[in-house]
């Protein structure tokens, strides 16, 4: 492809072209430019807002729409990718877009340039077949900040769209939702995420004179055990049990003969709909206070969480997505809230959102790859969904 030529509209060609754009967060890498040119050529009005926030990198985003009326269907996703890690360890270059043995290799193949390519191929095909005057609208809300701090991406893009008076009835987010086979799983919600930073305070001193010091490490271990020992809850009808994991314990003491003054640990909790970040934070404090018993001096920092648990009640739109998946794969997807959080946590305040995309088995891994056949089938699912969405009375 010459620099200005557009790839053909097949999902494979689009996914290869996107993978060849090195868009490791927060770099745009040419990926959004490519989408903009493809969407503009198909008659979409395209906008490229760039957002900033002190202390975070500026990030480029894309919003596109064709049609002004309803029903209005929004496709959402991201073109940024996580770093490839050791590029020499990859079987094929992470930004080459190589196809071998029926698999397309590259960073973002499943998470989620492949998914973006499929939604684009399906929408461009529908618009070409029906003409731009179909009754309704199709939108694209694509960020370059999903894998990063998620501050200058979807959350601000939605505010920007709201301020312009953009409205959508339903959103399909194309994150990789299937554990091992296309058609297995739709995500209808996500657990919340809360991070805690725990510090136990002691008094520095000589290891040979412990009575003149106060070692914070046993206290930190006691508090950490207290948080890990008791389950947080037993799960709910739609959500797994909440889980807490310590991610680091740090003392940073280079000396073998000094009792340190402080010991620190960080934990992250993935919580279900029976909690908010506030009620869960209060419960964590209650458990720590009980374990400390007035004798362990600690401070707990709970940075504000922008990731609540949420659930989208299955509705007629969910039924359309299920029907499209069943027709193309023969599988009936389970409706799940498992896994990490996603940008759907922001979109849910804008319109009902569900997630369905590729098989996520290799996401974030060396040799991330997608079956070319899955790209074609996911495009057929999205194409069928669009047709049935706009055919509704
Ligand atoms: N970096 C962002 C969001 C982090 C989102 C991340 N999500 C996943 O890993 C999704 C994978 C899956 O379960 O399908 C997470 O949950 O940490 C931020 O921090 O805002
Ligand atoms: Zn993703
Ligand atoms: Zn990811």
From TrEMBL:
Reactions it catalyzes: N-succinyl-(2S,6S)-2,6-diaminopimelate + H2O = (2S,6S)-2,6-diaminopimelate + succinate
Enzyme active site: 80, 146
Cofactor annotation remark: Binds 2 Zn(2+) or Co(2+) ions per subunit.
Required cofactor names: Zn(2+); Co(2+)
InterPro entries: ArgE/DapE_CS, Bact_exopeptidase_dim_dom, DapE_proteobac, Peptidase_M20, Peptidase_M20_dimer, Peptidase_M20A
Binding site for Zn(2+) 2: 111, 147, 364
Annotated Zn(2+) 1 binding sites: 78, 111, 175
Pathway(s) of this molecule: Amino-acid biosynthesis; L-lysine biosynthesis via DAP pathway; LL-2,6-diaminopimelate from (S)-tetrahydrodipicolinate (succinylase route): step 3/3
Keyword field contains Transmembrane helix: no
Keyword Ligase in annotation: no
Keywords: Amino-acid biosynthesis, Cobalt, Diaminopimelate biosynthesis, Hydrolase, Lysine biosynthesis, Metal-binding, Zinc
Domain Peptidase M20 dimerisation: 188-292
Known EC number: 3.5.1.18
Matching PANTHER family: ACETYLORNITHINE DEACETYLASE, N-ACETYL-L-CITRULLINE DEACETYLASE
Reported function: Catalyzes the hydrolysis of N-succinyl-L,L-diaminopimelic acid (SDAP), forming succinate and LL-2,6-diaminopimelate (DAP), an intermediate involved in the bacterial biosynthesis of lysine and meso-diaminopimelic acid, an essential component of bacterial cell walls.
UniProt cross-references to HAMAP family, sorted A to Z: DapE
Stated family: Belongs to the peptidase M20A family. DapE subfamily.
Subunit relationships: Homodimer.
Protein name: Succinyl-diaminopimelate desuccinylase
Origin organism lineage: Bacteria, Pseudomonadati, Pseudomonadota, Alphaproteobacteria, Hyphomicrobiales
């Amino acid at each position: 492809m010459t620099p200005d030529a557009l790839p053909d509209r097949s999902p494979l060609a689009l996914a290869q072209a996107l993978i060849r754009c090195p868009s490791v967060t927060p770099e745009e890498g040419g990926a959004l430019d490519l989408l903009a040119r493809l969407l503009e050529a198909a008659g979409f009005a395209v906008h490229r807002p760039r957002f900033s926030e002190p202390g975070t990198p500026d990030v480029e985003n894309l919003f596109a729409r064709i049609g002004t009326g309803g029903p209005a269907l929004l496709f959402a996703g991201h073109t940024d990718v996580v770093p490839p890690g050791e590029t020499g360890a990859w079987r094929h270059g992470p930004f080459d877009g190589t196809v071998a043995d029926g698999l397309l290799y590259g960073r973002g193949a499943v998470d989620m340039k492949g998914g973006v390519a499929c939604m684009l191929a399906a929408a461009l095909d529908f618009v070409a077949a029906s003409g731009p005057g179909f009754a309704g609208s199709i939108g694209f809300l694509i960020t370059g900040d999903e894998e990063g701090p998620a501050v200058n991406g979807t959350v601000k893009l939605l505010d920007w769209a709201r301020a312009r008076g953009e409205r959508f009835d339903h959103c399909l987010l194309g994150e990789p939702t299937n554990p091992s086979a296309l058609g297995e799983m739709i995500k209808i919600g996500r657990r919340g995420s809360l991070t805690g930073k725990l510090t136990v305070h002691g008094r520095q001193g000589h290891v040979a004179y412990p009575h003149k010091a106060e070692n914070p490490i046993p206290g930190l271990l006691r508090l950490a055990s207290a948080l890990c020992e008791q389950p947080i809850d037993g799960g709910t009808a739609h959500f797994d049990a909440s889980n807490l994991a310590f991610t680091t314990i740090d003392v940073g003491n280079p000396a073998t003969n000094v009792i340190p003054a402080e010991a620190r640990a960080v934990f992250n909790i993935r919580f279900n709909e029976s909690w908010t970040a506030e009620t869960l934070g209060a419960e964590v404090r209650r458990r720590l206070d009980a374990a400390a018993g007035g004798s362990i001096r600690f401070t707990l920092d709970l940075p504000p969480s922008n990731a609540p648990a949420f659930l989208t009640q299955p509705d007629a739109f969910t039924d359309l997505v299920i029907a499209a998946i069943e027709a193309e794969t023969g599988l009936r997807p389970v409706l799940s809230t498992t896994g990490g959080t996603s940008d759907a946590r922001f979109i849910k305040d804008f319109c009902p959102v569900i997630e369905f995309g590729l098989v996520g088995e290799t996401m974030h891994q060396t040799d991330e790859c997608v079956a070319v056949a899955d790209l074609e089938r996911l495009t057929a699912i999205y194409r069928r969904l669009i047709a049935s969405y706009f055919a509704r009375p």
